């Protein structure tokens, strides 16, 4: 009996996947926008089971996210391997200093990754690299059409890249405006060479419900490109707003060592209405070539939750522990911070076996780098618990758990000081704040818990292990969804401490943090 796998292969906020194969190993990266470190790297041997092995951009010198707006930052990377070197090309959007398109390289997937090579005169976003078999290297990206006649009127363009100078050289070529009449946002291009023909695969229709994958081909890399008469080769926009997988697009292709072709793409899982707190996730589907064109998931034509697995030996990785006891010397790879950390605001060594956050003036509501360490919400139903030690010393100080979409849409479940210590649940919606619940709490060591069943989030506190007292139950979580909050990211959950604009010497210590996905349990 043929093995099957379950989509998504990367649940949670992992959009814009790009994949490459090196021998029998597969590597995949995703967009990360305002989060640091940038661009997670995943490794697989079977295209189904993935584990994170690092990030591409780990040093502040590589990634300046200072003041980046929500859903600015790193857009749509591409990863490729050529003659012993890994290449990642990417766009930094709305950077206050550097911005635009850049390349980093590494001799091994684990790094070290180079400082960025910033590309001159490379307009647009979503760059990709193509290494031709004649030794030439090509940059392909999108840009706004110089004679744009409608919103999102873009074109795909091409220019040669000089690997010695890491700069573009020679003529620019306009390749294609896309297949779909005025659908807009021709973007996410990749070029492949199959049986002597050049194929240009792009995304169209915007990265929400009307997303689509289209393709064109040419005998010469510079064109002219002729679209597939059967375009789009993938879209779910015709399946209705209540279909459980929507927004399929921004795809990349990979050929296995056995000659099979597979496509990774982003897609969305709405729930409890057209809301998706998990953001855009990474899915996988088979591809077969017919009459010189790719056919996506033959016989079905769309992406399914359950699909026969690739003809590769199954290779599972050890499951990461649900609970992080903060015993390591570095933060686990699942953790991120907001924007580039310019000072150390956390420590794993000040109090061994604990994550310590220093209370600083920066807040979650600013476009700053607050004392926040978070991870993606990866399940529709989940439970997160933590043990925290914190005693507020003034009414400016707070520490606890945060559920974050962006600076203007989030929940803060924090202990602070009034006449006495209290636990507060604060909802920030469109920048307006409401205290949803508040009750006295004993300072010192407390346990905090957040659970979700669909869009119903519940918040609990305990002073004795597992003796939970509800603070607020069945709170509507839709402010954590992109259709409400806007932007391109998914929800995060994490640990937060702040002195809210004041100076403080206080700290908050977390003994452990447990996140457990409950979907299907």
Structure description:
- It is a single chain.
- The strands form nine sheets. Strands 25, 27, 28, 30, 35, 36, 37 and 39 form an eight-stranded antiparallel β-sheet that branches.
- The mean pLDDT is 97.
- This protein has 521 residues and is an all-beta fold.
- The protein is globular.
- The chain has one helix at 482-485, and strands spanning 4-6, 18-22, 25-29, 35-36, 38-44, 51-57, 73-82, 85-93, 100-106, 117-118, 128-131, 137-144, 154-162, 167-176, 187-194, 197-204, 212-218, 226-227, 234-235, 246-255, 261-268, 280-290, 293-296, 306-308, 323-324, 337-338, 346-347, 355-358, 371-376, 382-390, 398-406, 409-417, 421-429, 432-440, 444-453, 456-462, 469-476, 492-498, 507-517.
- The protein folds into two domains: 15-231, Glycosyl hydrolase domain, family 43 (Tachylectin-2, Chain A); 323-517, Jelly Rolls (Sandwich).
Largest sheet: 8 strands, antiparallel
Mean pLDDT score, rounded? 97
Radius of gyration: 23 Å
How many structurally independent domains?
Answer: 2
Inertia-based shape? globular
Q: Name the CATH superfamily assignment of the largest domain.
A: Glycosyl hydrolase domain, family 43
Helix content: under 10%
Q: Please tally the helical runs, counting DSSP H or I stretches of 4 or more residues.
A: 1
Task: Find the count of extended strands (DSSP E, 2+ residues).
Answer: 39
Q: If classified by CATH, what would the architecture of the largest domain be?
A: 5 Propeller
Residues in β-strands, percent: over 45%
Low-pLDDT parts are none
- Could you give the distance between the termini? 25 Å
Query: Which structural class should the secondary elements be placed in?
Result: mainly beta
Return the CATH topology of the largest domain. Answer: Tachylectin-2, Chain A
